[in-house]
Amino acid sequence: MPLSVRHLLGIKSLLRSDIELIFKTADEFKKVINRPIKKVPSLRDITIANVFFENSTRTKLSFELAEKRLSADVINFAASNSSVKKGETLLDTVHNILAMKVDMIVMRHSSPGASHFLSLHTPAIIVNAGDGTHEHPTQALLDCYSIREKLGSVEGKKVAIIGDISHSRVALSNIFALQKLGAEVMLCAPPTLLPPFIEQLNVKISHSIEETLRWCDVANMLRIQLERQKTANIPSLREYALYFGLNSRLLERIGKEIIVMHPGPINRGVEIESAVADSPQAIILDQVENGVAIRMAVLYLLAAQNA
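The structure corresponding to this sequence follows.
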């Protein structure tokens, strides 16, 4: 069965069957990226533009590598070096790119809903690589895929998302994806870093990291996003680390094996201690590897859907 959507704008619009199809396809592509010849001709003659209006390391490189592994033609756009600085609008920028016969656009933008807006005004396939504090669908897919790989299934697992929930697009996409796959979700953060009405998403809420870790099978740590905070939401990073940081002493005290995740970039010594981030129970680098396979699967399936 093909995907039920033409674009990947968010997890909210996906069916569980879509997610499972992406995972099965990623299983095959993971075999590809771990063999000596890491390339397949699946998207030969397809041109993909990576249009990033915000800084990115992992996501941008992961998409670019996924595209090249699929033999697509790739062009990269960075707003900091473009005519956007001269006042060009988003639509004018994209229409100029499309005039060069681009088939797919992978876009990151600071405004929530930017990728949805673009999908209504352009004929190209749109993949949301993060829109403001709204969604980051491929990150949630690779996170859930990594849990599935490590624990065998996402169904029935208890997953905690700990950190700056209010300013995180990763948190919202993860909540949607985890619940569609049958997991329980708990959010742990100071009250000032939880958005209003978040409990309406049928999640558990905690303000104690120790209580949260005793409950969960998986802890997904989020960084404090100071660049998005218009006011000070915490007294200091030191105090945040003291009460909500994940360290080895805390893990030893609860005496239980927990899978530790982080979408990156890591602020070592703030939300997570280096000894934990580099420990065998952390699957942070597995997430990065799986990101390439997941993005290959997404691009391949969307291109096939729109062929």
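The mean pLDDT is 92.
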